[in-house]
Amino acid sequence: MAQQVDRSRLAHEKSKYPFWEWADNNVWEAKKGEDFEVEPKAFLAAARAYAKKNDLRLRHKVEDHTVVVFQFLPVVNGVGQ
Where would I find the beta strands (DSSP E) of the chain? Predict the structure, then answer.
């Protein structure tokens, strides 16, 4: 019988960010220089791409030039994309 495993097993080895760990409905804070090295908009573009590929929606806020607060949520009844 099939069994549930950790999402990280589907991640590509070259994945730049551990979005599969952050896609748990919690609100996360990511800091430039610690969690990402690019501009916040580029980081969020990668997060949006992850969300789209995984049927999630992304809530986010750029608090300044170095801090991004974000949350991955499930798409409900097709709403949220």
Answer: 28-31, 56-62, 67-74
